[in-house]
Amino acid sequence: MQVPMVIEQSERGERAYDIFSRLLKDRIVCINGPIFDDTAHVVVAQLLFLESDNPSEPIYMYLNSPGGSVTAGLAIYDTMQYIRSPVNTICMGQAASMGSLLLAAGAKGERRSLPNATIMIHHRQPIDIVQKNMDRDYFMTPEEAKEFGIIDEVINQRPMALVADAVGGEGKDKGPEVQSSL
């Protein structure tokens, strides 16, 4: 896979970044694909770096994952809980299995999903339902994931407050563009 490059110009000249380094500069971490040790290694390092850079600023984690290794996922989960920076999670595409755990591990009130994403958990709660559904996975729409408590909002487009945070400025319109499931 070729990684796109982004060229930025400043008074000092031009600088080329791979797209993921440029996103990291804006405190954006992407998890795309299965979660294995190599993915966890990079994501944990990114989270620790961003916390050391500014522990009070939020980190934005975009998830599109079918899941993966439990130990690799728990390394990311534990780091998300350990660092002082709040981690705001956004599901795009899918968050299945370990991906849904990481989605739910985001900062309370800051767990979001795009409207056409799919969220999957292996078992439902309470225990009688878990026992009944042990042999099958449970796929949810974003609205169902909100009712279940995995996410806080379904968004159609980025709220202006997130745009302002991403570019380091103040958003003029702080009102969220949220699709309500009520």
UniProtKB/TrEMBL annotation:
Molecular function GO labels: ATP-dependent peptidase activity; ATPase binding; serine-type endopeptidase activity
One GO term (biological process): protein quality control for misfolded or incompletely synthesized proteins
Reactions catalysed, as given in the entry: Hydrolysis of proteins to small peptides in the presence of ATP and magnesium. alpha-casein is the usual test substrate. In the absence of ATP, only oligopeptides shorter than five residues are hydrolyzed (such as succinyl-Leu-Tyr-|-NHMec, and Leu-Tyr-Leu-|-Tyr-Trp, in which cleavage of the -Tyr-|-Leu- and -Tyr-|-Trp bonds also occurs)
Pfam families: CLP_protease
Catalytic-site annotation from UniProt: S97
Stored CDD domains: S14_ClpP_2
Keywords: Hydrolase, Protease, Serine protease
Keyword check for Hydrolase: yes
Tagged with keyword Ligase: no
Any one GO CC term of the record: plastid stroma
Family affiliation: Belongs to the peptidase S14 family.
Name of the featured protein: ATP-dependent Clp protease proteolytic subunit
Organism: Rhododendron williamsianum
